[in-house]
């Protein structure tokens, strides 16, 4: 049996020794923060001309996370590459020859990548919040306000889960092109369409990103009939992730490398 | 020591490896020979527990691969396909493998030095030439200082200097008492390195003998005779009960009769000979013959070879070695390798 500590160190060396790690995580952070700030500036500017109903349900915290819709795509790329690079380069054969306990191998790889994403995601979330609030002037929310800390912390969790879900999908699909080709349009387009067309909205809100992003809301929108709260939504996202992880684990165990 | 017992691998209804039982012993280089697609790489991947056998077991020093504590310290492998992330430097590639098996960092520097890659240790392996990549793969195999080493087609695509280096490395490793198992589809290469030979064809074990025995048993000697009076010579040989087979350039090939006897016969009947030369069939041919025997159909005894009819739809696989020369059975050069192709279909 390979010792867990050894394999974790090995996976850490792997993750820090390729450039894609810095690039994808850097882009995710910068996009999320910068786009969030930009939207906060525009919102602050237009607030007086917004309809009264929207002004009533204005969510200063949530608006500073507006960049996450785009930033999460870079997180998805990170998650996919961490796993599928092993397959596309053939490295998986060297890795599994070194650590034939595939469960241990997968656990350590995902643990290291997830821990890194969590740190980066949490930092991004806090910076996005403070930078966004700084742009909102009088409309700003404070970390001490009810629900705000949960939302900011939740932003970090949300990014982590998106990346972990992508890793699990990549374990199942192996090919980076296939994984990105499914995940990117799904989170960028399909989920949004399903969530905004009235006929499919009831289904759409159980998709991982829509359910999970509830954690970043502090003020519930006026006409919302979503049947779960912030933690319930995150729970749905966790359920999706666990299911994908189980699928990946079973396939990795059974497949030829 | 590697022991295979009834090792079998099916892909759907195609049998890649068929009931292999054999032992690879320490202290010598064991050659693992077979044409492309014979199941060599599949067998080696099963030895490393990368592919799951349909049936049978592999034991490394008596243990199943998964039971090995820090497997790289027991067995090191150079696999045929590249297994390196091109964006990672050579040193980091080796470091992450070393760490997973508790091998000290200093060993990375050591093996890089052994394979002569110290100068490019910090370079990303994406830019490596084929020879450098192969050296990096060998460095990874040596990392844990293992007693068992697998090399899958190590000389593929290497320049003569690199081939020479790998040959010596393998011999030295074996001389240190290690188990060295090398696959190749080139008999000539094996003849230079291996002391023991395991031949497979279509996933089945064809031979498991020492190299010396294999050469004795399988190399065929014959005499090539060329005469301007070919028909007369044929009649003469026929009347003496000697079988002769037509070969290229109007020459005849005679099995089992020494050259002096043929010369004397020709002289006695005043036949002019332009050539009378004893020939030794190459080992490559012996290997071809052996693997070709695994098919029901093959061209023999001077029958014209149905050159194209016998080849599979895909034609000849790239890299399949060309037979070294015309065999007596193949009167027409177009038929060369026809049974080879048949075998692969």
Automatic annotation (TrEMBL), chain A:
Record bears the keyword Transmembrane helix: yes
Tree of life domain: Bacteria
A Pfam family per the record: ABC2_membrane_4
Regions that span the bilayer: 21-43, 63-83, 104-131, 151-173, 180-199, 231-252
Cell wall biogenesis/degradation listed as a keyword: no
Keywords: Membrane, Transmembrane, Transmembrane helix
Protein name (database record): ABC transporter permease
Automatic annotation (TrEMBL), chain B:
Keywords from the UniProt entry: ATP-binding, Nucleotide-binding, Transport
Key word Glycoprotein present: no
Recorded superkingdom: Bacteria
Pfam families: ABC_tran
One GO molecular-function entry: ATP binding
Gene3D superfamilies in UniProt: P-loop containing nucleotide triphosphate hydrolases (3.40.50.300)
Alphabetical list of PROSITE patterns matching this protein: ABC_TRANSPORTER_1, ABC_TRANSPORTER_2
InterPro entries linked to this entry: AAA+_ATPase, ABC_transporter-like_ATP-bd, ABC_transporter-like_CS, P-loop_NTPase
Domain ABC transporter positions: 2-227
Spans annotated as Disordered: 300-345
Extent of Low complexity compositional bias: 318-333
PANTHER family: ABC TRANSPORTER, ATP-BINDING PROTEIN
Similarity field: Belongs to the ABC transporter superfamily.
Protein name, per record: ATP-binding cassette domain-containing protein
């Amino acid at each position: 049996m390979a010792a867990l500590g050894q394999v974790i160190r090995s996976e850490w060396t792997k993750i820090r020794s390729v450039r894609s790690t810095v690039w994808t995580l850097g882009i995710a952070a910068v996009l999320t923060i910068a786009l969030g700030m930009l939207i906060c500036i525009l919102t602050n500017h237009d607030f007086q001309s917004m309809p009264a109903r929207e002004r009533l349900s204005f969510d200063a915290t949530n608006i500073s996370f507006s960049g996450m819709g785009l930033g999460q795509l870079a997180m998805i790329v990170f998650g996919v590459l961490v796993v599928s690079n092993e397959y596309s380069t053939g490295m998986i054969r060297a890795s599994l020859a070194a650590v034939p306990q595939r469960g241990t191998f997968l656990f350590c790889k995902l643990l290291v990548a997830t821990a890194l994403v969590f740190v980066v995601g949490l930092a991004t979330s806090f910076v996005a919040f403070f930078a966004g609030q700084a742009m909102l002037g009088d409309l700003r929310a404070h970390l001490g306000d009810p629900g705000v800390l949960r939302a900011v912390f939740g932003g970090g969790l949300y990014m982590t889960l998106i990346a972990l879900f992508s890793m699990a999908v990549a374990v199942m699909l192996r090919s980076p092109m296939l994984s990105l080709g499914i995940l990117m349009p799904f989170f960028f387009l399909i989920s949004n369409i399903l969530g905004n067309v009235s006929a499919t909205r009831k289904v759409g809100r159980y998709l991982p990103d829509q359910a999970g992003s509830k954690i970043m809301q502090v003020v519930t929108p006026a006409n919302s009939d979503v049947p779960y709260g912030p933690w319930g939504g995150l729970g749905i996202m966790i359920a999706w992730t666990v299911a994908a992880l189980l699928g990946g684990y079973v396939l990795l165990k059974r497949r030829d490398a | 020591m590697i022991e295979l017992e009834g090792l079998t691998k099916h892909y759907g209804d195609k049998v890649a490896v068929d009931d292999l039982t054999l032992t690879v012993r320490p202290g010598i280089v064991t050659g693992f020979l077979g044409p492309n697609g014979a199941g060599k790489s599949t067998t080696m991947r099963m030895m490393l527990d990368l592919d799951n056998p349909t049936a049978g077991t592999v034991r490394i020093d008596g243990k199943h691969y998964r039971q090995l504590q820090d497997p790289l310290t027991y067995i090191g492998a150079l696999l045929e396909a590249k297994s390196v992330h091109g964006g990672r430097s050579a040193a980091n590639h080796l470091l992450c493998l070393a760490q997973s098996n508790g091998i000290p960092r200093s060993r990375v520097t050591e093996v890089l030095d052994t394979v002569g890659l110290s100068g490019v240790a910090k370079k990303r392996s994406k830019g490596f030439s084929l020879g450098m990549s192969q050296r990096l793969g060998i460095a990874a195999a040596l990392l844990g200082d293992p007693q068992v080493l697998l090399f899958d087609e190590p000389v593929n695509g290497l320049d003569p200097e690199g081939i020479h280096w790998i040959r010596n490395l393998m011999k030295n490793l074996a001389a240190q008492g290690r188990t060295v198992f090398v696959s190749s589809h080139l008999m000539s290469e094996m003849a230079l390195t291996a002391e023991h030979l395991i031949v497979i064809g279509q996933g089945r074990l064809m031979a498991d003998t020492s190299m010396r025995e294999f050469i004795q048993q399988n190399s065929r000697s014959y005499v090539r005779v060329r005469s301007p009076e070919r028909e007369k010579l044929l009649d003469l040989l026929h009347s003496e009960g000697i079988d002769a087979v037509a070969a290229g350039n109007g020459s005849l090939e005679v099995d089992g009769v020494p050259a002096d006897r043929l010369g004397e016969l020709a002289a006695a009947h005043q036949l002019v000979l332009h050539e009378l030369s004893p020939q030794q069939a190459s080992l490559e041919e012996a290997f071809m013959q052996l693997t070709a025997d695994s098919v029901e159909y093959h061209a023999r005894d001077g029958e014209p070879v149905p050159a194209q009819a016998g080849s599979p739809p895909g034609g000849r696989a790239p890299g399949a070695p060309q037979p070294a020369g015309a065999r007596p059975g193949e009167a027409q050069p177009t038929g060369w390798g026809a049974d080879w192709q048949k075998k692969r279909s």
